[in-house]
Amino acid sequence: MTLRHAAFNDTSEKSMETQSTQTNRFIIPSAIVVAGVIVAAGLYFGLAESKAGAPAAQGAEQSGNLEGMRAVTSEDHIRGNPNAPVKIVEYSDTECPFCKRFHDTMKQTMAEYGESGKVAWVYRHFPLAQLHSRAAKEAEATECAGEQGGNDAFWAYLDRLFSVTPSNDGLDPAELPKIAQYVGLDSQKFEVCLSSGRYAAHVEADTQNANETGGNGTPWSIVVGKGGKKYPLSGAQPYEEVRRLIEQALAE
């Protein structure tokens, strides 16, 4: 090999080493970035899964006096036996997605305990105005349904509303009289009632009572046992938890 060729090979090897070093400098930071993204994604989806599996409520946790709950009377909307030994008083928001889920849970509860007269479901209004601007008027709409068709019409309207709303202010207000018509009410009389606003004070009174008992999120429920003891039920708890509290309340 000539000196010229040796010099060329030496230069070539140094060039290759330089390129390799530059490549490594690029690859290592890139690998760190990719690893960071993978870890962050894992944390994100893990947190999302944890939240999805947890009992949910919109708003803060309960922190008040359960004894501040207004007594259940014939003026309330009651599903089931009014003289049932256990009553579940629910304060709810029709545009809350967790309330929508819990509504089905309560239907399941009444299917097991309501028909035998052991449990009564008492519904009260708790629209979270800061989250759902349409919920208060929807609450008034249920009252207008009850005014025209009695307790059965109230519950029929409420069931239908929860069935059709996408939640989070997704229900067009124009649907409210259509729901009234769907459950067999006079939609024109219904609209007159709704536009009058005469149930706004009633909805506000329910909301204030929910706050007095410490219900800062929805759904917020209180299980009242046959001996009068009250048990908090915060959030869209699964049926198993509702059943556990009912059995506890029945055993008083």
Output the keywords:
single chain, 252 residues, five-stranded mixed beta sheet, 7 helices, globular
Task: Walk me through what this model shows.
56% of the residues lie in helices and 12% in strands. The chain has helices spanning 3-53, 97-114, 135-164, 175-182, 187-196, 200-212, 239-250, and strands at residues 58-59, 77-79, 86-92, 119-125, 217-218, 220-224, 230-234. The strands form two sheets. The chain has a five-stranded mixed β-sheet with strand order 2-4-3-6-7. A two-stranded antiparallel sheet has the order 1-5. It is globular.
Tally of strands: 7
* Helix vs. strand class: alpha+beta
Describe the sheet with the most strands.
5 strands, mixed
The helical percent reads 55-70%
Low-pLDDT residue spans: 1-54
Shape: globular
Q: Gyration radius, to the nearest Å?
A: 30 Å
Mean pLDDT: 83
If helices are DSSP runs of H or I spanning 4 or more residues, what is the number of helices? 7
Biggest sheet: strand arrangement: 2-4-3-6-7
**DSSP strand content:** 5-15%
